[in-house]
Amino acid sequence: MRNFLNRLDETRFLGLDVWEFSWRSLARRYGRWFLASVVLRHPCRTLRGLRRYRRAKCRPREEEPTVVGSPSVESLRDQLAEGGLVVATGFCQKPLDPPCPAGRFNHRCVVWSLNPRRELPPACRGCPIRELGLKTLAAGGALHIMTSAADIADDLFMPSLRHPRWRGAVLAICPYSIPPFGLAMSICGLHGILFSYDRGDCRDYLAWARADEGDKPEQTFLAPSVHRRLLRLLEEIAEIRSARKLPAYSGFHEEKDFYLPVWDAPGIVPRAQAD
Ligand code: SF4
Predict the structure, then answer these.
(1) Ligand 1 center from residue 226 Cα (angstroms)
(2) 45's torsion region: left (phi>0), alpha (psi -120 to 50) or beta?
(3) Which helix (H) or strand (E) holds 194?
């Protein structure tokens, strides 16, 4: 069966390359949710999303990001500068040695948890999530650390399906997840710019399914040039906001699984920038 599904993916049967992922996910909470709450409940949206997805160019292992729901990075960037931006990366980007003080398989980051009296732990000094948070804040966005697919459905896909909470997302994910993410976003109406990890990523369904339960022994990394490109994109959004005289935020407020930008968060930004 797996070979047959892989063959469907390789030949992009009906213009889709998510056959294996979709079939095998039916045994998991996320797959059942997607089938029951999205496909069966919203058949017209699903058909429209499938058409959009077939037109999109997914670039799982290239430096160029995949753009979902918009003709180009630039046009979506200009929209995101107005607000409603969420920036997310996987828990697997948290460092292992020394380990992340917030733990691994969760949505938390102690740097952004509004606890300004704490010293910056050693693991945080070179952590890409700390840097991502700084640029996200300057871009006026919310920061989110993704865990399981079921949580991502609750946090990102479901809100887009009901009444859009986010104008768009900038995501760092493994190349293997780009097609299923792109499809889910196309159907649920979440626009986004997706950057691929280059190292430590899950390369098949089994590795993905283990990571989906928190069993992820590797740390993932974006290629340095892709990391710079992502940060540059957030800087450009910040520059557009500044040119349009949109307000600047001073820190994050932790709310459920998100760090939301707020005006009055004394202490957090100076500490985060400390080294
Ligand atoms: S900055 Fe990185 S290492 Fe430090 S708490 Fe946040 S995610 Fe963990």
Answers:
(1) 20
(2) alpha
(3) strand 192-199
Cis-peptide into 261, omega within 30 deg: no
Q: How far is the CA of 47 from the centre of ligand 1 (A)?
A: 40
Average pLDDT per 10 consecutive residues for the chain, totaling 275 residues: 86 89 93 94 94 81 87 95 96 96 95 71 92 95 97 92 88 95 94 96 95 96 96 98 92 92 64 43
Q: Which atom of ligand 1 is nearest to the CA of 130?
A: 1
Whole-number Cα distances in Å, 195 to 139, 178, 182: 17, 9, 12
Kindly provide the b/e burial profile for residues 165-197, where b requires at least 16 CB atoms within 10 angstroms of the residue's own CB: ebbbbbbbbbbbbbbbbbbbbbbbbbbbbbbbb
Contacts for 157 with CB less than 8 Å, ≥ 6 apart? 38, 184, 185, 188, 190
Closest by CA to 137, choosing from 82, 196, 85, is: 85
pTM above 0.70, yes or no: yes
